[in-house]
């Protein structure tokens, strides 16, 4: 019974890490697109900027979590099985998840999702990198902790 509780706790920890990664990627996308829209800190009163971020970051995180779920799940399970604990693996994995999303979006043929502006794919890949680091910070540092380790010779 205690082994089942350990696995449920690890699963909850992974969900918490995925939530943190989605929020971090969303915050990065919000900051990039606010800057791209030409909105500077001097142009917006702090109350307005803070109020809009409180709504837009979690709202955008829902879309980030939805579109990145399947490739991120594969990466999270692979990292857990292999016991990867370094931040670079998670950062590059987050970039890979973003590339997979861009590939799916490109294959979908949505005319509204055009690659005319190079800021869009670069910012999505950057958000994947940030999301991967956030996942490592919350969960990835403890990957593979449930696997029994053999003593060193």
Give your account of this protein's structure.
This protein is an all-alpha fold and 153 residues long. The protein has helices spanning 2-36, 46-82, 87-108, 119-138. Helix 1 (2-36) packs across helix 2 and helix 2 crosses helix 3. The two termini are 32 Å apart. The model has no long low-confidence stretch (mean pLDDT 84).
Which geometry do the CA atoms define? globular
In percent terms, what proportion of residues is strand? under 5%
Annotation, overall tally of beta strands: 0
Counted by DSSP, the helix tally is 4
Regions with little confidence, pLDDT below 50 for 5+ residues: none
State the separation between the terminal residues, measured CA to CA: 32 Å
Output the radius of gyration. 18 Å
Order of helices and strands: HHHH
Mean pLDDT: 84
Helix content: over 70%
What about the largest sheet? none
Class by helix and strand content? mainly alpha
